[in-house]
């Protein structure tokens, strides 16, 4: 659902998000790193913080301490490379 929103609806709004990454990108990362329940809660809290009086800025998802995967620029989970 998140990828569909990012592909279809998000481009219609343009670059209006006060935060970086956008709320939809934040939601994808939160769900991938923390699972559906906690990731959804983190995403809802982020959306609640996004209002006209918000300062905005850079707001990345705090990585899960046991997260052993990496994310591609398109939001897909890939095994962590051991370089």
TrEMBL record:
Instruction: Establish whether keyword Membrane is in the entry.
Output: yes
What GO CC terms are in its UniProt record?
plasma membrane
Listed A to Z, the keywords are: Cell membrane, Membrane
Q: How does it sit in the membrane?
A: Peripheral membrane protein
User: Where is this chain's protein located in or outside the cell?
Assistant: Cell membrane
* Organism domain of life: Bacteria
- Quote any Pfam family the record assigns: YidD
Give the InterPro entries listed for this entry: Membr_insert_effic_factor_YidD (IPR002696)
Family, similarity comment: Belongs to the UPF0161 family.
What is the purpose of this protein?
Could be involved in insertion of integral membrane proteins into the membrane.
Q: What is this protein called?
A: Putative membrane protein insertion efficiency factor
């Amino acid at each position: 659902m998140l990828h569909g929103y990012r592909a279809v609806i998000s481009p219609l709004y343009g670059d209006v998000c006060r935060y970086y990454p956008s709320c939809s990108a934040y939601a994808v990362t939160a769900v991938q790193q923390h699972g559906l329940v906690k990731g959804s809660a983190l995403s809802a809290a982020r959306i609640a913080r996004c209002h006209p009086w918000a300062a905005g800025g850079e707001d990345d998802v705090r990585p899960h301490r046991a997260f052993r995967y990496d994310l591609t620029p398109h939001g897909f989970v890939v095994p962590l490379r051991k370089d």
